[in-house]
């Protein structure tokens, strides 16, 4: 009989004769892995829902800030100082501006927000010429205003310079001079709808340079003086770059006595809550994994205890340790395959139920979740059943045959 034939014969013999001994550990392992799979499935599906409805929801990353008291106001210099923090972008609001059609001088009431070029993508605007935007030559007009005023893309409108208090312009003569200043011409680059952000559902967008032209020229000040002295009465808008930073950014402004208004204000601890849920899920999975590991370890030790005599006898007959090791290892491998084959359809059906019953949202895929869980099962079962048994088997086979034969069969 060749070595291969002996290996296959002995593997078959051991597998059949020892199957009952493996039955209880296999049941424990299957039940434990199914519980872990259910936990992982719920966690993955829940994370996907959070990702879609929270992390990828732009509305939740948008907030407005202003001072709590009427006695304090915000300046553009303060807004620029905010932008030193890389977690968010801040820009000012401007409300109720009267614009005018250049040709007819017909007045139009606008609400607009001042947005730097790099933040336009947040508003789903990606086709604007950067040079024209940064020069203050173009704007994005609210679709509702465009329909009401019959304005079209490419048309030029005039944004008037702002009437500021005497203490800002310096004198009545300066105020009269400001009143006579011509409007700032701006071309409508495209029409937009910001309805996905309820607070901005009827806002247009202009560039910072356009805003400075409208305001600084009115104030009769240099741009540096204007940023330092002129107050932004309506506060600032904030775009938080990553969902995980929303609570921290909100708290940053609250600590500086600003009022903060944002969609997640009633759920400020959502990040902490999700982290706690994940820790609980991981802890539960680790506990089940420990129970499975102890069960398998006990089964391996019993298996080796009863096999010692046979191992010693076969070694004394000239069978190599490598063949015996491969046989014992192969037996454990077959048990692992059986577990994986039995668990896979169960976890696929279970994940399907989890998705359809508890997380029936678009984008939550049973296939993706099942694939990830299957990958975990392969790693977990192979690591626990194979790597966890290799060392004990080899340590047993290193003992002298005479010592192994003394063990009771």
Residue fraction in strands: 15-25%
Count of distinct strands: 11
Computed Rg: 35 Å
Task: Report mean pLDDT, rounded to a whole number.
Answer: 75
Write the H/E string, N to C. Answer: HEEHEEHEHEHHEEHHEEHEHHHH
Model regions low in confidence, pLDDT < 50 over at least 5 residues: none
Biggest sheet layout: 6 strands, mixed, barrel
- Tell me the number of structural domains: 2
| Class by SSE composition | alpha+beta
Q: Name the overall outline.
A: rod-shaped
Q: How many individual helices?
A: 13
Estimated helix fraction: 55-70%
Report the end-to-end length measured between terminal Cα atoms.
25 Å
What is the spatial order of strands in the main beta sheet?
Answer: 3-4-8-5-7-6
Q: Could you explain the architecture of this structure?
A:
With 409 residues, the chain is α+β, with helices and mostly antiparallel strands. It has two domains: 3-56 and 271-405, no CATH class; 74-232, no CATH class. Helix content is 57%, strand content 15%. The chain contains 13 helices and eleven strands. The strands form two sheets. The chain has a six-stranded mixed beta barrel. Strands 2-9 form a two-stranded antiparallel sheet. A hairpin with a 5-residue loop joins β3 (88-101) and β4. α1 (3-55) packs antiparallel against α12 (366-397). The chain is rod-shaped, with a radius of gyration of 35 Å. The two termini are 25 Å apart.
């Amino acid at each position: 009989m060749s070595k291969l034939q002996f290996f296959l014969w002995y593997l078959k013999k051991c597998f059949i004769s020892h199957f009952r001994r493996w039955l209880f550990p296999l049941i424990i392992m299957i039940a434990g892995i199914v519980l872990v799979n259910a936990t992982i499935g719920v966690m993955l599906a829940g994370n996907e829902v959070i990702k879609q409805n929270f992390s990828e929801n732009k509305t939740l990353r948008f907030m407005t800030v202003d001072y709590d008291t009427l006695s304090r106001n915000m300046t553009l210099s303060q807004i620029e100082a905010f932008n030193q923090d890389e977690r968010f972008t801040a820009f000012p609001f401007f409300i109720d501006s009267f614009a005018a059609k250049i040709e007819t001088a017909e007045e139009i009431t606008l609400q607009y927000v001042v947005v730097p070029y790099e933040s336009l993508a947040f508003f789903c605007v990606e086709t604007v010429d950067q040079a024209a935007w940064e020069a203050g030559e173009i704007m994005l007009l609210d679709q509702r205003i465009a329909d009401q005023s019959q304005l079209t893309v490419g048309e030029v409108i005039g944004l008037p310079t702002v009437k500021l208090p005497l203490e800002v312009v310096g004198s009545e003569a300066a105020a009269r001079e400001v009143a006579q200043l011509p409007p700032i011409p701006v071309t409508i680059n495209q029409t937009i709808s910001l309805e996905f952000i309820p607070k901005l559902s009827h806002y247009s967008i202009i560039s910072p340079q356009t805003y400075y032209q409208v305001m600084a020229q009115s104030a009769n000040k240099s741009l540096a003086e204007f940023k330092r002295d002129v107050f932004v009465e309506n506060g600032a808008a904030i775009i938080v770059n990553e969902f995980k930073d929303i609570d921290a950014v909100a708290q940053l402004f609250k600590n500086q006595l600003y009022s903060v208004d944002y969609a997640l204000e009633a759920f400020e601890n959502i990040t902490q809550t999700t982290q706690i849920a994940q820790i609980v899920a991981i802890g539960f999975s680790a506990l089940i994994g420990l129970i499975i590991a102890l069960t398998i370890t006990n089964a391996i030790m019993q298996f080796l205890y009863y096999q010692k005599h046979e191992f010693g006898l076969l070694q004394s007959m000239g069978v190599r340790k490598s063949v015996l090791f491969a046989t014992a290892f192969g037996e454990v491998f077959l048990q692992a395959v059986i577990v994986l084959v039995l668990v896979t359809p169960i976890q696929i059906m279970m994940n399907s139920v989890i998705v359809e019953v508890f997380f029936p949202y678009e984008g939550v895929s049973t296939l993706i979740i099942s694939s990830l869980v299957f990958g975990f099962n392969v790693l977990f079962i192979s690591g626990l059943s194979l790597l966890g048994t290799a060392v004990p088997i080899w340590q047993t086979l290193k003992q002298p045959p005479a010592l192994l034969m003394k063990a009771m069969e």
